[in-house]
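Hi U.,

Before I forget, here's the chain from the pilot set. I'm dumping it here mostly so it's searchable later in email.
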Amino acid sequence: MQDKVHITINSKEFDVDKDLTILDAARINGINIPTLCHHADLGIAGNCRMCLVDISGSHLLQPACATVVTEGVEIQTNTRRVRQTRKELISLLMSEHDTNCLRCPKNGNCELQDLAAEYGVDGNDYIQLSADYTIDISSPAIIKDDSKCIRCQRCVRTCEELQGVNALAVVNKGGELRISTFLDKPLHYVVCTNCGQCVNRCPTGALTEKNYVADVWNAIDDPSKHVVVQTAPAVRIALGESLGYPAGERVTGKMVSALRGLGFDKVFDTNFTADLTIMEEGTELLMRLKHALTGEGKSHGALPQFSSCSPGWIKYLEHEYPDLLNHLSTCKSPQQMFGTLAKTYYADIAGIDPADITVVSIMPCTAKKFEAQRPEMTDSGFRDVDYVLTTRELGHMIKEAGIDFDSLEDSSCDSLLGAHTGAAVLFGATGGVMEAALRTAWEIVTGREIPFTNLDVTPVRGMAGVKSAAIKIENALPAWSFLEGVELKVAVAHGLANVKTVLQLMKKGEADYHFIEFMACPGGCLGGGGQPIRTTPEIRQSRMDAVYAEDNALPIRKSHLNPEVLHIYKDFLGEPCGEKSHHLLHTSYTARGKY
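Structure:
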């Protein structure tokens, strides 16, 4: 039990843990202290000074985020001096800020805008000093608009602390201080993984996703286009937040109805190709194991095998560890598998020219926008996925269309590319790909269900940055007898800083695994850069709980039992990792330079 200290905030007495900051102590007890640079996921910075408070015995106001509580301390968060100081700080920020809020993508969801309204600041207290800036639109995923930047440095700390990428940095000092990249190069030309974690933590519109909503509306309104949409598993457990629902509220059925209401010709599910990914990636792993243990068969790459569902993680590997690319599964992500099949398998059955099919993805991820534009992703003979929208962008479309989301009836995705299992839903959470793969691979090898209660592979669940598990294979079926007695070792890492830790251990020979799931974003896809803003550890946990609830609610929870997946192999693909499936569903990646 932690030691307590007795403190007073605004004349109310509290007993709080002695190592808390004033900010945390106040928030735990329902007292709001405004901030612009502080974030629950990041270390203390104390840059914005919005959280200044009056402390008895101190002549100067103190930052609540960087001041630890002490026994008997008396704190005032709402004195005249505090209020006036905050108002002056907001006014100064507004004087250097592009205040044309109606043109800003973050209008209505901007922390600076909220504080300005709260403190009655209209932006006219000081001469407008905002300079002319060139908006960086080089990236297919992220837009950087320095005219909206308040130099809180959340983005820099996110990229350094959470992701270990350091694509963004502080340059210059004083009034010349700004957030830049290496040699001031555009984002697309530095080591940016497009993960969007900086976007999720930016308090203003300085960093936003590149918006393709207008392009999607144009496609829907074009009678010559057959527009199909796919939705990722993490979207259904976060979309509600954009529409007024609490974090973790599952809105799957309403989401499908809303997509039909927007005018999409077919509403499909990325979960279908998540199940397909398990079939391909699981088979690939077994083939790698067979070659490594017996020397038989074709080498499909080195062990451990790395998962390949996260495009931010893949780009990180291409930049930082290109010598390890042979460990990466050759499977495309579920998004890209869907795009390929929509313009081959679906186009053929529906009797539609694939040139007339527009594939739209709704993803929790900004890096998916980059992935869709990769030159490798054209195995259908066309660009496999035409447009990628984030969860946030879908929320905006639903509002723009005037759809009363609350009143919608639940409906189901269209068949053919819509059926899925609980295993596919797990892709939305860190450890989910691993758990889904183990459920299937274990049953293929042994003929039995994986020996965990209710199929829940708990060792790979949870928010720990790195997780691992080992399962000894016993009583393998004759075809897999070479695996008898093998202790299958797996690991999971999410957030690129944790990914780096595992890769460094591997380079030292200290990571003895057969299969590793890597996800670029904290929490996996549920914490993706395209999810509703704002994000906290508690919000991500609520979303994770919703993922597991969705899995448990489905009648089939193993990918290899998905009847539509079995059907597509029988009628179109042949067998997992076969000639046709390898051509359409697998790819390769390229080593990239640092800049």
